[in-house]
Structure formats: structure tokens, C-alpha cells
Amino acid sequence: NAGVTQTPKFQVLKTGQSMTLQCAQDMNHNSMYWYRQDPGMGLRLIYYSASEGTTDKGEVPNGYNVSRLNKREFSLRLESAAPSQTSVYFCASSELGTSGKNTGELFFGEGSRLTVL
Amino acid sequence: AQSVTQLGSHVSVSEGALVLLRCNYSSSVPPYLFWYVQYPNQGLQLLLKYTSAATLVKGINGFEAEFKKSETSFHLTKPSAHMSDAAEYFCAVSLLGGGFKTIFGAGTRLFVKA
Questions:
Q1: B44 by DSSP, 3-state: which?
Q2: Rounded to whole angstroms, how far apart are CA atoms B47 and B4?
Q3: Chosen from B39, B104, B109 to mutate, greatest number of chain A CBs within 10 A
Q4: Best residue of A10, A27, A108, A112 to probe chain B, by most B CBs closer than 10 Å
């Protein structure tokens, strides 16, 4: 079981460059999320997609865009990278529904470490 | 709005000693509560969760946590630390329904001394 797969795992950018982080899940989950992790700040939600066809801003959306390409894939784009976006980015997925299966557990990818010079 | 506070960014224990990682939350409605563990250079994985059933929740690797509504706490414990427990631990709270999101605490790094 692959679970949640993120690419690339490492990336170095120069200020002003753009890039897209890719995420795919094979668990048939409805909801997908992008978090960033910075020392001493835990994980902060950038954007999420509660279901295919919808996206919403999280706590720190500025400087990012997302696309829910289909049920499996959720990408995060940095249009003009800034040093403040140096971070580790995590994609996650969860089941969302009215059934008893929904307990809010998140399944994470291994992370993408981004450095902006 | 909900929030999570983890007391202590770093905790150090000796191998075989009790592990206690503290978490307090605030929420306007009954929350779902989680502890996640992150080993170096890996993503987070679920350790245990509270979903309004039993207040004492048992998780993987011998960890457990007790939901105390009166104290708004969800502290994580393990009777005897093992070297392999060294990792970062995150407490998290979520609300279900519309606008479903999880809020994480800042994390506590656990060091285990031989």
C-alpha cells in the first residue's frame, strides 16, 4: 500500500521561481490537505479540499494555490517563491462523510523539503 | 475556534522511566482529539485518538491518553520509555461536519537517555 505519495522529496528554488508539489493518495479518501511544518510551530494548514471539486483556504494560504485534479490528486503551487516559504510540506488525506467511518484521522505523506534561496 | 497547547517543546526521560507529554485544548463543541508521532525525516502517523467513546484511549507502542473534560486535557503517557520512542509528538484537535479541519499543537520532542 502506497498510501499518500508526494513528489518531489527535496527541492531548492531561487526567489521568484515557481514550482508545483504533487500529491496522490490511493485510499479513496474524499478529503485532502496541504500543511507546512516549521520548527516550533507544529503543522499549519495551507489549503484543503473537503471533496473532489472543492478547495478552501486554511490558516496560511498566502503565496500558494491548489488544484484538486481528481479524487486521487491534490497539487500545491508556489507561483513566485519567497524565502519565507522555506519549509517542509506535508500532504494528507482523510475520509469525510456522514458514516461512522469518519473519525478525522489524517494519513500523511513523507513530506517535501523545500528551500528557497 | 479550537486550539491546542502542548506544554514543553522538549522532554527528556531515561530509558524505563515514565513518559508524560502534556496537551490542553480549547473547543466550543466536543472535539475529536489525536496524538500523532513523527520519526526523523518521516511523515506523521497516528498514535491514538479520542472520539467520544472511552475516556482512556490506548494506542500503539504502549502509549495511552486520558480525556479529561473538566481539565480540557488529553495527556499522553507510557509507563516505561524505550529508546525507540525518541521522536516528535503532536497533539491535535478536530471538529467534524462542515469546514472539517485539524489543528495541531506545536509539538514536543521526546529524548530518551540510555
A1: strand
A2: 17
A3: B104
A4: A108
Residue that the C-alpha cell 523545500 belongs to: A114
Q: Is residue A89 classed exposed, middle or buried when 0-12, 13-18 and 19+ CB atoms within 10 A define those classes?
A: buried
Judged by a CB distance cut-off of 8 A, whether residue B97 touches chain A is no
Q: Cell 528554488 identifies what position?
A: A13
The pLDDT of residue B100 is 63
Backbone torsions φ then ψ of A84, nearest 5 degrees? -65, -10
With an 8 Å Cβ cutoff, are A31 and B100 in contact?
yes
Encode pLDDT of A39-91 as tens digits: 888 899 999 998 888 999 998 999 999 999 999 999 999 999 999 999 999 99
